Structure formats: structure tokens, C-alpha cells
Amino acid sequence: QQGSVTASPSDSMDDSYICPVTTGSNTLHLDFDTGSSDLWVFSTDTPASEQGSHSLYNGEATGKLLSGYTWDITYEDGSGSKGIVYSDKVVIGPVTATSQAVEAATSASSGFVSDTSTDGLVGLAFSSINTVEPQQQLTFFDNVKSSLASPLFAAVLKHGKAGTYDFGYLDSSKYTGSIAYTAVDNSQGFWGFTAGATTVGGKSTGSVGAAIMDTGTTLLYLPSKVVSAYYAQVKGSSNSNTYGGYIFPCSATLPDWNVSIGGTTFTVTGSYFNYSPVSSGSSTCYGAMQPNSQTGGSTVFGDTFIKGHYIVFDQTQGSNSPRLGLAKQ
Ligand SMILES: Cc1ccc(-c2noc([C@H]3C[C@@H](O)CN3)n2)cc1F
Fold this sequence. Notes:
Elements: E1 3-9, E2 17-23, E3 26-33, E4 39-41, H1 48-51, H2 59-62, E5 64-74, E6 80-92, E7 95-108, H3 110-114, E8 120-123, H4 140-144, E9 152-156, E10 163-167, E11 176-183, E12 192-200, E13 203-213, E14 220-222, H5 224-231, E15 238-240, E16 245-249, E17 257-261, E18 264-268, E19 274-277, E20 284-287, E21 289-291, E22 300-301, H6 303-306, E23 309-314, E24 323-328
Parallel strand pairs: 3-8, 4-7, 13-22, 14-21
Antiparallel strand pairs: 1-2, 1-10, 2-3, 2-6, 4-8, 5-6, 6-7, 9-10, 9-23, 11-24, 12-13, 12-17, 14-22, 15-16, 16-20, 17-18, 19-20, 23-24
The protein binds the ligand Cc1ccc(-c2noc([C@H]3C[C@@H](O)CN3)n2)cc1F.
Ligand DD4 is lined by residues 16, 31, 33, 35-36, 75-77, 79, 111-112, 115, 118, 121, 214, 216-217.
């Protein structure tokens, strides 16, 4: 099997990208996250006080309860959820996992309860960091990859408009030039890779090093040397204690940022680095490139980098030799 599902920005800032997923017989809108490995959903097992306006998975109706199984996850930003586990059919585009662990929330933090755009997450990192106990469960990709035409999926996310996640095939109409491949270190359960030299306006701004490709993270978090060298090219910018990161006048011209990965140079267009005004109506804007001190020291290529590129999460060389493919859209 193979196929594509639409990935729509959750809001005008491209905070996240959500996709319709049928769990059991209900269609929910889920955040595909290559930085975690649990598929969890708001459900009829979620307290009514926490269900908000979310679409709900009904495990009692269509699933098989994995008796005594639990899960509990905390994300980089401190938000989290926990609950119980069913096995059920999950359909993404035309791709079906017949016995997917669907993790039904019995509790979710306020960030999720109030995020009406997101009914849960589909974890697409490696199953080694799935949180289900007493028996760890497989991700959707791990469950279907042997049935896919090719064991890969591609993220084709766009700025301010719908893109896709494609499972099982490469679509040459969705990228230009050739795909540059680079080795993945999955020892921590992530799609880890090494990024190299960076430049801004023709000037070298240092090398990045180890990073993870994380569709569930909104911004681009880099070593402080690279970040300070970037904002040195942005008039009026500063690293604000008040706002907890780099800010600049919303009228500032933001330069493009270039990084070498897999022997090829990739560019993030400057305007993508204007995340949003620091508060509604403000003429001060918050940067979409921030130091990795904000992510516990991890360098994270989030949606700010991913949108506008064609990113392939690839196991065609075998599950012990995962790789990332990158191309320009
Ligand atoms: C309300 C809410 C909060 C966090 C997240 C979230 N999803 O993926 C991630 C990143 C960071 C790392 O944890 C794994 N990938 N963060 C999603 C939400 F809808």
C-alpha cells in the first residue's frame, strides 16, 4: 500500500500541522510528530471536563482493550498526557494499520485541552521510545512499513497552506533537483543527523553538529554561536529576557539562512524567521530561530526548516540503516 494525507497548518503561524486520521470509526485531526513515538488521542475515556471540543476516539465501541496497559508522555515544552491502550484499526490516507496501539487519554495537560485544532498525536520517531507499559508498542510507520511499496514516508509541509505526508513512495513532482541523503543516528529514538556549515549573507556563521528532524516542533533551535551570528545581521534585534528569546522590529528585513546537510546546501527563506508579534498588535516580533538552550541543549530542525523542503524518513536500506533524504520543494 501507499498514499498521501493532507497536512494543514493548525493556525496562521504554522504552529503545527494536522492531518485527518480514522481511529476505529471516528476521524480525528492529529499532529504528526517525528519527535515522539506514541499515537494518542482524546477519547470517551477522557474526563468530560477535559474533552473540550475535541473529536473523540471510542475504544469501547471499536477497539480491543489491552488490559492493564498504560502510557504516560511528557513533551519538550512540559505538556503531556497519559492513559490506557486499545488495539484498533487506524487509517491514514489510503494506508491502514489493522492492529495499531491507540493510546486513549485519561488525562491531558491544559495545552492540549485548549488546543482545539489537535485531537492527539501520531508519533513517527522510533518505537524504542514508545511509552506504553508493560509492553512497548509500535508506531504507525513501524506497523505498516513492511506493507508499504517502499519503507519510507515523506513530509511535504508548506508555509501557510496545506501540504502532505506521503507514505510508501517518493513523488518527484513534489521536489526539485535530487534528494540528498544523510545517515541517521536513532540511538536516542529520534531521527538524528549531522548538519554542517552555515552561512548568512555570504558570511560563515559556524557549524551546527548533531540535530534531530522534528515535525512536532514549531521553530528552529540551533547552537547559540550560529543563532547570535544570524541575528547580528538583523538590525534592531536582541536576545530578550522579557520574551525569552531573540526579538526584532516586525519591519526588519530577515536574511536567508543556509546550511549544508548531506553535501548539499539548503536555504530557509528569511521571511520564515518572523514567527509572530510578541503579543497581538505589537510591532516587536519573535524569531523562529532560537538558541538550543530553549530545548535543553538539543538542536532541533522543526517546522521552520521542514516547511518548504521535501524530507524523506527512509528505511529502504534496512531498519538498522535509517537515513534522511532532503530536497528543495
Ligand atoms: C499542546 C502541544 C504541546 C506539545 C506538542 C508537541 N508535539 O511534538 C512536540 C515536539 C517536541 C518533542 O517533545 C517531540 N516533538 N511537541 C504538541 C502539542 F499539541
